[in-house]
Write a sequence for this structure.
């Protein structure tokens, strides 16, 4: 009876196949919601697979969580956008080396009614001050993602701190970019977004882009191989092959070639 | 809208969508199978034995029916992570990890409900079994057989719970396209991309599948009632 039950369990596990045996070569990349939700990976990964034969499995998380996934050894490569956090990741010995990959920029999204009257501005700090002055609803990712860190840095640069002040108009939702945009639309709130997610977002509805073009809104993406010295399970060769490809001419061309309605979403800038 | 809806995708046999449906069904079926063996066994044991601390176990099992999927996901994640005790298995972010999470989620449900059903039936048969001096293993077999329709319903409840949850499989599966992306995690993803029409039509497909599974179970039951006489 007991061995019988055990056989059923084994059979059940075998039902979906053993990935280690079935997949010849694959790596896990912990990345951000922006790269996945914008459709970038859907565009570039088949190109990489064609030249390398390597399957890239993407886990889309916020930058903080993606780095944590790497720190635990559950990913081979991290591909994120918060330079200070990335440099700390490498300095702490969890990553081998950080490479610049591409950039885009953050944009301030707001309700069409624009209660803080910031539409068309170029100065993000002035816009944040206006949002605070009007006590207009503002949605924060609140999830330690790259966008969240960038948002906090901007408030700091504006010498404001609504997060610590627990201002009632400042709402941390602890979710991804898309969810933050959905929430902002429903609440008529302002929100900082990366441009790629905004461009590909399909539920814009009552939202529009209100502030863009400030140099402080620059958003750099970097890629790091998880250190095999910390985690021997890291697939070094395949992971490095992906990094080498994405910073190579063809990888960079693939990134620049991804467009929505003719507009590029990311700009390759590997050194 | 230029892009096809989920209905058009499924009607045209879109391979990606079909793969997601197939993965969802196989993971959940596997979990229901494993949880069925464990849960029915545990339920029968608890129903037919008496030992100190049994009541506490029964209460605990009933309480675990309300186990939050996200907590199950987190625990399985911590166990299977490379930095966790079972990290050497390399199971995190695989379909197997999702089966394990769903199994843990629904085993208490199946065990607690089947314990109740079998115990009730046992109360009915007890005197008869004792009078006829039926041996233990045969008693279990007879009880399970006579309770089979209720037990199938219990398995369906477990299946439904596993198929509907998103919190655990998102954490331990990672929602990797073409590998661990399920119906429910797709719905969450499309919602976050703001593609609400696609998300809702995926949801309707999931409900339709659940309906078909339950209709099938109902049909089997009707058929066997008629033929079992």
């Amino acid at each position: 009876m007991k061995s019988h039950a055990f056989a059923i369990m084994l059979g059940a596990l075998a039902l979906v196949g053993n990935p280690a045996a079935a997949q010849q070569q694959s790596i896990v990349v912990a990345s951000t919601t922006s790269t996945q939700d914008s459709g970038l990976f859907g565009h570039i990964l088949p190109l990489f697979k064609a030249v390398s034969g390597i399957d890239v499995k993407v886990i889309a998380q916020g930058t903080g969580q993606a780095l944590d996934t790497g720190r635990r050894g559950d990913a081979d490569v991290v591909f994120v956008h918060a330079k200070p956090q990335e440099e700390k990741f490498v300095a702490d010995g969890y990553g081998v080396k950080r490479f610049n990959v591409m950039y885009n920029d953050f944009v301030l999204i707001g309700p069409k009614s624009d209660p803080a009257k910031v539409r068309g501005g170029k100065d993000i700090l002035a816009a944040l001050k206006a949002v605070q002055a009007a006590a207009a609803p503002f949605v924060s990712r609140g999830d330690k993602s790259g966008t969240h860190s960038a948002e906090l840095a901007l408030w700091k640069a504006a010498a404001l701190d609504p997060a610590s002040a627990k201002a009632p108009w400042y709402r941390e939702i602890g979710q991804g970019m898309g969810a933050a945009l959905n929430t902002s639309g429903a609440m008529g709130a302002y929100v900082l977004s990366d441009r790629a997610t905004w461009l590909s977002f399909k539920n814009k509805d009552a939202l529009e882009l209100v502030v863009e073009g400030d140099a402080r809104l620059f958003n750099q993406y970097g890629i790091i191989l998880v250190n095999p010295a910390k985690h021997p399970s890291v697939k070094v060769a395949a992971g490095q092959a992906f990094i080498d490809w994405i910073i190579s001419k063809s990888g960079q061309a693939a990134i620049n070639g991804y467009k929505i309605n003719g507009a590029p979403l990311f700009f390759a800038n590997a050194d | 809208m230029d892009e096809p809806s989920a209905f058009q995708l499924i009607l045209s046999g879109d391979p990606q969508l079909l793969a997601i449906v197939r993965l969802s069904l196989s993971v959940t079926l596997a979990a229901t199978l494993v949880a069925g063996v464990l849960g029915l066994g545990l339920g029968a044991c608890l129903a037919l034995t008496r030992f100190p601390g049994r009541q506490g176990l029964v209460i605990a099992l009933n309480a675990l029916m309300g186990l939050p999927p996200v907590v199950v996901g987190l625990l399985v994640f911590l166990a299977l992570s490379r930095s966790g005790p079972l990290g050497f298995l390399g199971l995190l972010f695989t379909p197997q990890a999702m089966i394990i999470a769903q199994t843990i989620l629904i085993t208490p449900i199946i065990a607690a409900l089947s314990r109740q059903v079998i115990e009730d039936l046992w109360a009915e048969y007890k005197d008869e079994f004792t009078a006829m001096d039926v041996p233990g293993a045969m008693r279990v077999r007879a009880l399970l057989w006579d309770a089979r329709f209720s037990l199938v319903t219990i398995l369906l409840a477990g299946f439904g719970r596993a198929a509907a949850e998103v919190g655990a499989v998102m954490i331990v599966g990672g929602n990797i396209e073409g590998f661990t992306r399920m119906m429910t995690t797709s719905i969450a993803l499309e919602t976050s991309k703001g593609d609400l029409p696609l998300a809702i039509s995926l949801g309707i497909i999931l409900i339709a599948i659940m309906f078909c599974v339950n209709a099938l179970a109902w049909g089997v039951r009707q058929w066997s009632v008629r033929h079992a006489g």
In short: Chain A touches chain B through 38 residues (CB under 8 Å). The CA atoms of residues 100 and 222 of chain A lie 5 Å apart. The first strand of chain A starts at residue 26 and ends at 32. The mean pLDDT of chain A is 91.
